[in-house]
Design brief:
Largest sheet of chain A: 12 strands, mixed
Number of helices of chain B: 11
Strand content of chain A: 25-35%
Number of domains of chain A: 2
Oligomer: heterotrimer
Largest sheet of chain B: 2 strands, antiparallel
Strand order of the largest sheet of chain A: 7-8-9-10-11-1-2-3-4-5-6-12
Number of strands of chain B: 2
Chains: A alpha+beta (414), B mainly alpha (271), C alpha/beta (323)
Structural class of chain A: alpha+beta
Shape of chain A: globular
Helix content of chain B: 55-70%
Radius of gyration of chain B: 20 Å
Bound molecules: adenosine-5'-diphosphate, magnesium ion
């Protein structure tokens, strides 16, 4: 070709180059943070504790990748932004999903939850908060204003209302009231750390376009499935902005919850005032006494990711009601929690043993569980990248964030 | 010199074509069909079908929104493929391209005018769906304050504004496809071939967007934000999606506009 | 050929112009020189590269080699400046069929950003009038006959005052009456001073109006000059009427000619014809030789050099296109 002809293609070469340069430049600019004053892990922890950000708004993104195989029949239910991903209320609250055994339900949900979920968060002080979980063409709203709790599900146009007397006082300990902000998760992990964790402060990238410290927690354990927990802490305010949990042997984070944008400041007051729209079905709920006792934060539940996930914003399935949490309703599970002798080990190596009589029948006989479980020495293993569950041949259920070897050792009575 | 003479002429040409009106009327028929179907089957909502369908009976505004939603995956891309595929290939195929170029029109100017007309069609198409939806919706169903996804209720005028925004959002969403179409149209002298290729690309991009194995690719597909207009029905409106979509479509316009220029400016017009 | 005008006087000048489609050479090393004010006939059989040349002249196709200067400006670099002064008809008319003739012309005039908007309607109507389409101006083009479309194409070339008209086979599809009209139109424009570059595969159609001619054959320019120059290059021919065709053939061959027997229906005499090249003996010597060999010469005619013969000699006869 002649040079004159080649010249006409210059823009065609330049355009992608310019775009690539901008994209790279923007990501470098977003990542490049000013030289932060070096801090020790203790100082960063202190920043979190001292953080006075009580009012903020932001966008959060939660990604879950537990290495669970996707079941064919879950596909359409779990993907977002597909043309038919927004089925009407009948499909999302299909009757069979409520009658299915809870464990099957759990796997359903974990598989469906895998992927990225986005939510908009508004917080004004300890007793006003609103979370909007963006779910394709639908939206789940959780609104708390003092003792009044609202949930609105756009797909079914139903609203749930609970008034929790005395709620404000109890909830005044930060981050514990609502499906977790990153701060709530950070607190839980810090609580659970104990002595057996290596802590360091890394030069992480900027988070949500803000300068941030990244506190890294590495379990000092050979058996833990948790490779690393990274907590991004806003350099300016000390607010935790991001929590990333890496699993052993997995490149992508198993869990990543964080702000993609974060703005300190009081959100508009009307965001916290919810009036159910005309035509919506409104369910008024009484507060069961148990619900108060079982409030999150009262369990030693940091060792149970299923438990944590139960409170994640993205976890609320369309059509599900708040308070109807699958794991707290499981009798066996709960009893196991309440009996200290069923918990072996401490810290990262904690293993929970559920005696055979407390394991629900549905678990052992469940077809889907059997399909997913792999036979191992001494029983069957349900494996995710963070949590292992061993169903022993004698009917016990042994679970923890640990390797199979440790579960087997515990099961064998060591 | 100004583009106005030619642009005005091309716009008139677009709307003088029977084909254009056939496509616009077909698009307008979609919300009408939806509304009539909902009206005739006045049972309780079954929960099946596209999002918002179960709200149609309660509020005519949702006819327009459901109509747009239904048209996005196939009908709108098809019509845009016809118009964008015709831009250059149509002129080449009928031989009029050589007379335009010797008139003379500079080739970049012709591309610009043709793209502008295609973009205008994108807007006409979405406005047509929205307008027909609003029209039939107000005829068959009550029209009043609208409950947003966040549970907030807005007045009818505010809802009208939101429907307009959605039409605009969808029109912007189609810009990338129109730019791809402009480029493909410069590759051939057979307009039907270009149209088919563009339609196939629009469908293929949506299929790729569904494959979880390609999730690294998804944010770069021009179809990625096509269904993101739900963010305009939230309270407060999330503009992020609108912005990202505009940026992405702008990127497509830049890249494929430049490719179209490279191809067209160096092309021998032999038809 | 002598008297090649200076480039300033040339409406079109090409140097070494060539175009290949893949390996096929459609136009080869073309050196055209079209004087301003001339009516330049661009002759050649179908497929000889006329249209391809015209496409390159107008900037529609990029030359594979060589340079073009149109109205003293380089093409395609100066297309925007030059083309408004050039009216063109390329490879037949092409219009939007659902638009009227007038709407089509208006559209093309809008396309020319340098055209005066205020006079647009008047100019469009005048152009339609000039080609006799005044009455059909409002009809959609799909209702036009081929001849009417051809006229509309010419009208497009006449939308503005042009310094140069490039007309590719303008009489294609026209009836004899229409052909004559086009010829008159071209002559009239030429008298006003417009240079006309008109291509045709039929010499007879443009012979009467051209001042200059170029002849193309298989992509090559084989002759170029004024009509007189070309005619002067022509060769005379002789025809011998005799019953002894065989002997006559032998004699003429011996004298260095390439004789051919032309069949004569229903007569005992045959006709032997031959073209006289520049080195051929004079006709009287031919008669002498024939008579001496005992050929019964019953008729002997000398045909003067004709353009037609020249054209055929340059491009070959019949349908077998040399590729
Ligand atoms: N688009 C094309 N692709 C390949 N070859 C072509 C093309 N256009 C013309 N040609 C070839 O170029 C030669 C000259 O064609 P053309 O210029 O149209 O002849 P003319 O106008 O004298 O009849 C022919 O041999 C033709 O086959
Ligand atoms: Mg030709």
């Amino acid at each position: 070709m002649k040079p004159a002809v080649l010249k006409k293609w210059i823009p065609a070469v330049l355009a992608p180059a310019v775009i690539a340069a901008f994209a790279i430049g923007a990501s470098i600019a977003a990542d490049a943070q000013v030289q932060l004053e070096p801090k020790t892990p203790q100082q960063v922890l202190q920043m979190i504790v001292d953080s006075k950000v009580t009012d903020f708004s932001g966008s959060t993104s939660a990604t879950l990748d537990l290495g669970i195989p996707r079941l064919p029949d879950l596909g359409s239910n779990g993907t977002m932004a597909t043309p038919d991903a927004s089925p009407g209320p009948g499909a999302s609250a299909s009757p069979d999903s409520t009658s299915a055994p809870p464990e099957a339900h759990l796997l359903d949900m974990l598989a469906a939850l895998s992927g990225t979920h986005e939510a908009q968060v508004y917080v004004d002080g300890p007793d006003k908060a609103r979370i909007q979980v963006l779910d394709g063409m639908d939206e789940q709203n959780f609104i708390r204003n003092g003792s009044s709790l609202w949930h609105y599900d756009s797909s079914s146009n139903t609203a749930d209302h609970i008034v929790v007397p005395g709620f404000p006082k109890k909830a005044s300990s930060k981050h514990s009231t609502m499906p977790p902000t990153p701060g709530a998760m950070a607190d839980k992990i810090l609580e659970a750390m104990g002595q057996n964790t290596d802590m360091s402060v890394a030069d992480g990238p900027r988070i949500a376009d803000r300068d941030a410290y990244t506190l890294e927690l590495v379990p000092r354990s050979d058996d833990s499935l948790v490779a690393k927990v990274s907590i991004g802490v806003d350099a300016a305010t000390g607010a935790p902005l991001q929590v990333v949990v890496d699993a052993v042997g997995q490149t992508n984070p198993a869990v990543s919850v964080g702000f993609t944008s974060f703005t300190p400041g009081t959100p508009a007051a009307n965001l916290f005032e919810f009036t159910p729209p005309a035509g919506a079905k409104v369910n008024e709920h009484k507060v069961p006494p148990r619900a108060l006792k079982d409030k999150p934060g009262h369990h030693p539940d940091a060792a149970n990711p299923g438990k944590k996930l139960g409170h994640k914003p993205g976890n609320a399935k369309p059509g599900k009601q708040p308070g109807h949490r699958f794991d707290t309703d499981k009798p066996g599970h709960k009893k196991a929690m309440q009996r200290p002798d069923s918990i072996r080990g401490t810290g990262w190596d904690t293993v929970v043993v559920v005696p055979a009589k407390d394991v629900p029948k549905e678990v052992a006989g469940n077809a889907m569980l059997n399909q997913l479980a792999t036979p191992v020495e001494g029983g069957k293993l349900l494996h995710t990248s963070l949590l292992n569950v061993l169903l022993t041949d004698d009917g016990r259920m042994v679970l923890g964030l640990v390797s199979l070897a440790r579960l087997q050792a515990v099961a064998n009575g060591k | 010199m100004s583009n106005r003479g030619l642009l005005a002429n091309e716009v008139v040409l677009l709307y003088r074509r029977r084909r254009t009106w056939a496509m616009l009327l077909a698009l307008g028929a979609v919300p009408v069909l939806i509304a009539v179907a909902v009206r005739l089957t006045s049972g309780p909502p079954t929960g099946r079908g596209p999002a918002f369908l179960d709200r149609v009976a309660g509020n005519g505004f949702f006819v327009a929104i459901t109509g747009l939603l239904v048209c996005i995956p196939l009908f709108l891309p098809l019509t845009v493929a016809v118009v964008a595929g015709d831009t250059i290939a149509g002129e080449a195929g009928s031989g009029t391209l050589r007379y335009l170029l010797t008139a003379p029109v500079s080739r970049p100017r012709l591309l610009l005018v043709k793209f502008t007309v295609a973009a205008l069609f994108c807007l006409s198409a979405t406005v047509m769906v929205a307008a027909c939806g609003l029209g039939i919706g107000s005829l068959l169903f009550p029209v009043g304050p609208v409950t947003l996804l966040s549970g907030t209720t807005v007045s009818a005028p505010a809802a009208l504004l939101r429907v307009g925004l959605i039409a605009l959002y969808v029109a912007v969403s189609l810009i990338g496809l129109a730019a791809v179409g402009l480029f493909i149209s410069t590759l051939t002298d057979v307009p039907v071939g270009a149209m088919a290729a563009i339609a196939v690309i629009a469908v293929a991009a949506q299929i790729l967007g569904q494959l979880p194995q390609l999730d690294w690719l998804h944010p770069w597909l021009f179809t990625h934000h096509w269904l993101g207009f739900a963010d305009l029905l939230r309270d407060p409106i999330r503009w992020a999606e609108f912005g990202q979509n505009a940026l992405l479509q702008g990127g497509y316009l830049l890249v494929f506009g430049a490719l179209a220029y490279g191809r067209f400016a160096s092309k021998d017009v032999l038809s | 050929m002598t008297g090649v005008p200076e480039s300033g006087d040339l409406a079109i000048q090409t140097a070494g112009l060539g175009k290949s489609f893949g390996k096929r050479r459609a136009v080869n090393n073309l050196d055209l020189a079209v004087p301003r004010g001339s009516v330049f006939g661009f002759l050649g059989p179908n497929g000889s590269g006329k249209t391809t040349t015209i496409r390159m002249l107008l900037g529609l196709a990029t030359p594979s080699s060589g340079t073009i200067s149109l109205l003293s400006q380089p093409m395609p670099a100066a297309a925007g400046e030059v083309l408004p002064r050039v009216g063109a008809l390329v490879e037949g008319p092409a219009f939007h069929l659902f638009l009227s003739g007038r709407a089509n012309l208006t559209r093309l005039d809008c396309a020319d950003a340098t055209a005066d908007r205020s006079t647009r309607t008047r100019r469009v109507d005048a152009a339609l009038e000039k080609v006799g389409l005044g009455k059909a101006a409002k009809l959609p083009v799909h209702a036009y006959s081929l001849g009417m479309k051809q006229r509309l194409g010419i009208a497009n070339a006449l939308l503005r005052e042009r310094e140069l008209l490039v007309l590719d086979e303008p009489t294609n599809g026209l009836d004899p009456q229409g052909t004559r009209e086009v010829r008159h139109l071209i002559s009239a424009l030429a008298t006003e001073g417009t240079t006309v570059f008109v291509s045709s595969h039929l010499l007879s159609e443009i012979e009467q109006i051209c001042s200059h001619v170029a002849v193309m054959s298989v992509g090559n320019l084989v002759a170029q000059g004024t009509l007189e120059q070309l005619r002067a290059q022509g060769r005379r021919g002789v025809k011998v009427a005799t019953p002894d065709t065989g002997v006559a053939m032998a004699v003429l061959s011996r004298l260095g000619l390439d004789p051919q027997v032309e069949p004569v229906p229903g007569g005992e005499d045959g006709i032997v014809g031959a073209v006289l090249g520049p080195e051929a003996p004079e006709p009287e010597h031919l008669v002498e030789g024939l008579v001496a060999a005992g050929v019964r010469v019953r008729g002997f005619t000398v045909q003067p050099a004709s353009l037609e013969e020249r054209f055929v000699a340059l491009t070959g006869e019949g349908f077998d296109l040399v590729q």
